[in-house]
Amino acid sequence: LRDxxxxxxxxxxxxxxxxxxxxxxxxxxxxxxxxxxxxxFSVLKNGKINLLEKHKVPFTSKNALKExxxxxxxxxxxxxxxxxxxxxxxGLDSSIIASIVAKYADNVIYYTLGNTEDLSYVNLxxxxxxxxxxxxxxxxxxxxxELIDKVVYHTESYNPSIISNGLATYLLSTExxxxxxxxxxxxxxxxxxxxxxxxSKNVKEWFEKRAELIENIHFxxxxxxxxxxxxxxxxxxxxxxxxxxYSVSNDCI
Length: 253
Description:
- By secondary structure, the protein is an alpha/beta fold.
- Helix content is 42%, strand content 18%.
- The chain has helices spanning 65-76, 92-104, 118-129, 141-155, 160-178, 190-193, 203-216, 221-230, 243-249; strands at 11-15, 18-22, 33-36, 41-45, 48-53, 84-87, 108-113, 133-136, 183-185, 235-237.
- The strands form three sheets. The protein has a five-stranded parallel sheet. Strands 2-1-3 form a three-stranded antiparallel sheet, with no helix packed on it. A two-stranded antiparallel ribbon has the order 4-5.
- The longest helix has 19 residues, at 160-178.
- The mean pLDDT is 92.
């Protein structure tokens, strides 16, 4: 069984006539072959994974986006943790998550990275919400080579986008780990669901591209997000990837 969006990576690996189910390929020393476990319900038979059934996305009212997103955030606020985190980029998506979290929890550490122009938006948000921000310094240029090696290792990828974005996730997760956190909320997934990228002004073309981005997100951004954060035992929860939020987004055309 794999989640509907592919948030957690999962593979079946074949090594010396033995099959392994793993979330990271590096878990096996020698690999003859491997398959990505598909999203949905599958069966392992005769050494091969076969998809039985895809997940069904529930129907949700077109007018319920705000209420649905609020519930998706509340559901992901940990009940038994002394502290949890929120990653802020200065963009709309993570700011929305932070604005909801601030209403329902005060045992939160809000993290942002660097001193770019985006920091001014983070500070504006902090003032509006009455929250404190923990700003993490960008690495020095002399540190980048070693950091890139670590991100390549943990994400198991040479994709420039995964590595560059993975650096940010890795650095933020490093700090969250130092603060003994286990759970962090993120605005990940909103760009894919709600057409946040500058791809096309044509609505039909964008929605066609949107379907492709969502179908492949488990190869790209979610793989980077999970592996860069789990390198520091940080579980990142993504309210925008809630199944009901996804259902609402399908009606936004």
